[in-house]
Each structure stands twice: as structure tokens, then as C-alpha cells.
Fold these 2 entries.
Entry 1:
Amino acid sequence: MMSKHCLMVGAGLSGAVIGRMLAEAGHRITIVDARAHVGGNCHTERDAETGVMVHIYGPHIFHTDDAEVWDYVNKFETFLPYKNRVKTTSQGAVYSLPVNLHTINQYFGQTLRPDEARVFLESKADTSITDPQTFEDQALRFVGPELYEAFFKGYTIKQWGCQPTDLPASILKRLPVRFNYDDNYFYHKFQGMPENGYTAMIEAILDHPGITVQLETTVSRDQAAQYDHVFYSGPIDGWFGYELGRLGYRTLDFERFDYQGDYQGCAVMNYGDVDVPYTRITEHKHFSPWESHEGSVLYREFSRACGPEDIPYYPIRMVAEKTLLQEYVDRAEAEANVTFVGRLGTYRYLDMDVTIREALDCGRRFLAAQAAGEKMPAFTVNPL
Ligand SMILES: Cc1cc2nc3c(=O)[nH]c(=O)nc-3n(C[C@H](O)[C@H](O)[C@H](O)COP(=O)(O)OP(=O)(O)OC[C@H]3O[C@@H](n4cnc5c(N)ncnc54)[C@H](O)[C@@H]3O)c2cc1C
């Protein structure tokens, strides 16, 4: 096999995982990132003053059912047990999320058992809505007006910057309620936190003699021809200089504040009321329950429309964005030697485990294409 020189644009999980696989197969890999650190949006940093491991771009909890992905991350970093248990402050009280039997009993002042709670909630649900079109319809149909107002409406307005009547029903696919006391936010079999943070894990993935990392380096389309192949994990519209317009994103502002002691007693406290401007507060030291720190680092999280200078976080993916995305996908498919990967390259929200799964598959596809003398496609997953 002829060794190729590949460029990975982005030193997040996508670039690191693909780069590692190709380096292990004997290819030469250059990984660049515009930022001063590796890790992409999963980047973690130990705070110099308090010693707390801070999730710089917002809280990241690892959870998956994918055994290969779980084995993969455990090869590069020790994962310690962590279960995400989220609370929410709403209408002057604190409740457990996701909405579960405790939340229902507390909210309505009841002592219902699971079967009784089902019947009770059905009596609250708006059964006149037979064909829910919007998020609001769907929520009212599932849980009725009280729980909708307390736990879904305000948070959704703040998160997406629009009314729930303007969002599609498909956002709430299933009944968002548990009829037991399970308050583990995720259902996945494997859950944990990297002992030394995600950046240490990604540094270990990148630690291979075939990989060179260049930070604070921005790559654009005109540099692609210098490489045999490019894997691009930046924004797909950015690759084309935003020629057709910008794909819509929500961005986040994190307002940091420090505290001596334990500020809120949990890692994540949501705020459901619309008159509280932030969506949640995260207290980072609770993401590392095996550590002990006197000082505490907290983030108030605000969501707003993403401007040209902001970090794109959540793709909006409504009809207008998908139409524009289709045009960029057509352009991408006409590129000679570029594969678009990851959350920004494919304009999708991807959890870390899905990102790693797709990166492993993408790396294998490249190796298979090389072996067969075939062209590597622009996408190994359909972004639409
Ligand atoms: C607020 C938030 C919370 C999240 N929480 C969780 C969670 O709890 N659990 C979970 O599993 N997942 C979570 N995720 C998802 C997780 O962040 C992603 O799965 C992961 O970051 C995707 O990795 P990536 O490599 O595709 O993209 P990124 O991490 O975004 O990496 C892309 C990199 O490319 C670089 N780049 C872009 N363009 C260029 C260019 N032209 N030149 C050079 N460099 C460039 C960027 O600087 C960036 O570092 C969360 C995401 C967000 C937004």
C-alpha cells in the first residue's frame, strides 16, 4: 500500500479518531486546528485556582450502548463511573429530570404508583389533538398543560429562541416521561467520565509517530490540493467561504462565576422559567465526584442565535437550513479529495459516541477505498 499524506482539519474527536486509525495503517497525518488546544468542543482544562476540571465548551457526559466505542475510549483514558442526574428549578421549586414519577408526584402533590400515574397523566393530556403538528401540540398531547408549562415550554423558548408552536412535533418523538423513580438522565449501558478530562484522552489518541499536530492554524479550501486527501471537520458552509449563505446555528454564552464550597449540590441545574434568562447552571466539580475541591467553578449558560464570529453549537436544521444544506452537499460531492466529517462537516448534532462511531467507520472506509483503488466519497454518512 502506498502511504498517503492526509490532512485532518480539526483536532476534535472526529479528526483525532480518523487520524489515529490512518496513522496506525502507515499513512502520514497532519492535523490542524484553529484553536490553541486539541479536543474541539470536548476540551477540558484544569482550573489553575480551584483545581477543578472545567468543561470549557459546556458539560460533556460520556454515554453509549456501543461496546466498540466504549472499548476504544477506555484504551486511551480511564473512565470513572458517573451518572448524570439533572435537576430543574421551575415555578419556585426544585424537581428531578427527566420528568419521572418523583417529578409528577411532587408537582401535583400526589403519591401515585406507576399505573396510577399513567392514568392520571392521560387525564391531563389534551386528547383533542389528534394530529400534532408542533412541539407544543405534541407536548400538550403527551403530558397536558401543567407539566408542559413547568418543564418544557420556557426551557424550549430559551434554548431555541422561538415559540414551541414554531417547532416541529418531531422534536418530541416519544412520551418524555418515566413512570418510575429512575432519574439517570441517559439510558445507555456504558456511562462515565474521563479521569483526567477529555483533552487528555484526545492527546493520547493523537500520540502516534505518524501524526503531526499544528495548533492555531486555520486551513481553507485552496490548501487542499497539497494533500492526498483531506478530512474536514469544520463547518461545511465555511469550506465554501459561506458563498451560498450561512447555515443557522444556536450559540452559547457561558458566564463563569466562582464559589467557595458547594453552590448547588449537583452538576446540572436547569431553569425552566422563561423570565430566568439562562437555561442552566453547571457546577463543574460535580462532574468529577472522585475529586475534592473547596473552590467551585460554575457556568451560567445562555443560548442565542449564532453570529458570524460566534462558535456554532446546535444546528437548527429547519426546512430553510436543509434546503441550503442540500446545495452545500451538492458542492461538497463535486470536490476531488475531501471528506466532510463530524458535527460541523455534516451539520448535525452528534453525541461523542456517535462521533467516534462515525469516525471509526470513516477511517475504515478510507482504508478499504485505498486497498480497492476507489475514490473516497465526500460523505460516509448522509448529512440530510
Ligand atoms: C453544549 C454541548 C454539550 C454537549 N454535551 C455532550 C454530552 O454531554 N455528551 C456527548 O456525548 N456529546 C456532547 N456534545 C457533543 C460533542 O461536543 C460532539 O460530539 C463533539 O465535539 C464532536 O466532535 P467533532 O470533532 O466532530 O467536532 P468539534 O469538537 O467541533 O471539532 C472541530 C474542530 O475543528 C476546528 N476547525 C473548524 N474549522 C477549522 C478550520 N478551517 N481550520 C482549522 N480548524 C478548524 C475547530 O476549531 C474544532 O476544534 C455536546 C455538544 C455541545 C455543543
Note: Residues 9-15, 32-35, 40-42, 58-62, 218-219, 233-234, 252, 313, 342-344, 350-353, 355 surround flavin-adenine dinucleotide (CB under 6 Å).
Entry 2:
Amino acid sequence: MTLEEYHSLHKTPVPGGYLYTKAGARGLADPAYELLAQHLEPHGQKALDLNPGIGMASYALRQHGLQVQAIETSRASLRCLEASFGATVEVSRGLPWETEPDSTDLVVLVLPANRGTRYVELSLLGAARALRMGGRLWIAGSRDKGFEHYFRLAQELLGFGLLVKRDGPLRVAVLEKEKPAPELPAVWQSFACDLQGQTLHFAYLPGVFSGGHIDPGSAMLLRELPDQPGHVLDIGGGYGALSRPLVGRALSLTLLEDDWPSVLSARQNLGEKATVLHSDVDEALTPSQTFTTIVTNPPFHVGGLVVLETAIAFIEAAYARLERGGKFYLVANRFLPYEPLLEARFATVHTLAVDSHKVLLAHKSD
Ligand SMILES: C[S@@+](CC[C@H](N)C(=O)[O-])C[C@H]1O[C@@H](n2cnc3c(N)ncnc32)[C@H](O)[C@@H]1O
């Protein structure tokens, strides 16, 4: 897949029309979205979609004549939503718990179970707080990913709840707000760790990759980096685990990240010392920007599904964004077949370390 193909939008048919999709967007191929869109019923006038993905539930709500606001964290999904809805849905980047209290009649939420319990709990709290008294929350998810637990939690927050649909492991339920929602608790968390002789402190928001500890693969990659890496690009930088130790060693640091809570976390950890961009792969860079060293620990899950297309786009972007003679460091699970992809592009490819993960170094020719 070329970068151009990765970034292109495709029309996907939905009952009564189509939505735009693209590689890397959340909510693609997740049947919970479809089931929720089929079964939700209108209530009141204003609706809020707190995990829209490519917008299937928002689309159904529009068809029911409701005024819809969709809050999304993924840059790739935001692109799809903006293309599909134009001005007909108020699409905004944001955190699902930062909702305006008592502002809406209906909330829809496909449970973001793959983002961890704390993230789902806060999303439910955001939904409960946004609803007016008597407003309704529709949730969808899988029994295999904690649906029963989250349904009980939603009942504790709101009140009456009814299971509307079972389809294999998938569930859809509706709840009614019968009591005031609790205040939002403190959401930021932090941890300290020793990396290459220094103690570093990291802050992070719920839902980010490897919150609370440095991923063992990322720690392996850090051990292989040169003392003076020059101008560095960190693709899929998360909360800054790879970039933070390079502060003071790199001539400049640029971090690209698709996920908004991760972007906010990286900005908190890197401050003025790096440029942190909300970016689907390299789309937020200007066409001429190139770097001496590129580092990545690429994702291979999107919304809980194993997909390599985003990782392939990371490799394509790394090749395009490296200066001549530049170096690309990639860490991955041992079973992932990145070597042939790198060899197809780069002049040389070496395995620098193998343990729980493998660290690969690819050179761009001079
Ligand atoms: C395996 S994590 C690594 C995070 C961080 N570099 C570390 O080492 O802890 C992969 C990161 O890629 C981000 N990501 C996923 N898809 C992306 C995309 N299309 N563009 C940019 N970043 C993306 C994820 O949100 C996640 O933070």
C-alpha cells in the first residue's frame, strides 16, 4: 500500500446512503457500530456520539432527524467524519469525558473496550454528565469485552436500563438518566522510570498505549539509539516514551500521533522541547520536511483488530521523510514480518537486537 492509497477516502455503503472510510480509521469493521445504528431509537432533539469512529450511529441519528454532535479522538476518523457529514453533524476533536453538563437528550456510545477500563468508565461518566434528566444513553459492545460489567456501571450512574438486542456476543442496551451524575474525578496519571541512567517522569491520560510503564519494546529501541541522533521524527509517538529520553540529545524533535489523549500526554511530557502534532501518519507535516533519524514502535491493532496497513504506512512515511543517509529505527513483536517491507525500500536493513521484541535499523542510501 502506498502512502497515497493509505490516505485516500473510500465510500462505504450504509442503509440509505454512504459514509467515507479510510485505512487506519477507528470503527472500521466493528459490528457493534452497525448493530447500534440499526437498533437505536430517537429521543428529544439533541444527540451526542461519544465514540463515533466513521460515524455509523451519527448517520442513523441524522436519519431520525436529530441534531448531532460527534466527539472523536482519532485524526484518521475525524477526516472521515468531516468528509461524510460536512456541516450536517457538528464534528469535534475532544475527550469523551469533557462533555457539557445537562446539554443533550440522547448519547450513543460504542464501548471503547480496547482502550482500557478507565477510559470506558470515564466515557460513561461523560455520557451521564452530558445528558439532561430523563435523557437516554444507548450503548453497544461485546459480552467478550466486558459489556455486562459496563452495563451495570452505566445503571449505577444513570438508573433504569434495558437490554434491547443480543446478536452472538454483541449487545445493545438503552438507559434513562434518573439521577444527577457525579463530578468528574482527576483524570491525569503519572509514573517515574529509570531510563539510561536518568529518572524520567511521565504523565498520561487514560486510553494511551502502555500508560504506567515503558513498553518493553520501546525500552529495547531506546538502547539502540545513537547519542546524537540529529533531527528526530517519532511516528506514532504515544505519550512520548521514545522522544522524552532524546530531549537534550536531538537537534530537534517532532512527534506525530493520531490519538488526541496521546497528543495531550506527549505535550505534557515534552513541553516546548518538541513539536507534537495530531497527525494520521505524516499528514500534518509540510511536504518538504525531512529528518536525520526516524523512530517508531508502530501499532498493529486498530480498535482491537490486527491490521498492518498503518504500520506499512509508517514505513512508507519513514522512507519519504528521511534525509539521504538517514536512519530508521523500528521495534516490533518478533512475529511481525517487517523485514521484507523494509528491504523493498531501504538500501540496507539490520537486526540490532532480538529479545521479547526485535529492533530493526534501515538505512536510506546517500
Ligand atoms: C505501539 S504504540 C507506541 C507508542 C509510543 N511510541 C511508545 O513507544 O510508547 C503506537 C502508537 O501509534 C499511534 N497511532 C496509531 N495509528 C496512527 C496513525 N495513523 N498515525 C499516527 N499515529 C498512530 C497509536 O495511537 C499509538 O500511540
Note: Residues 189-364 form a domain with the Rossmann fold fold (CATH 3.40.50.150).
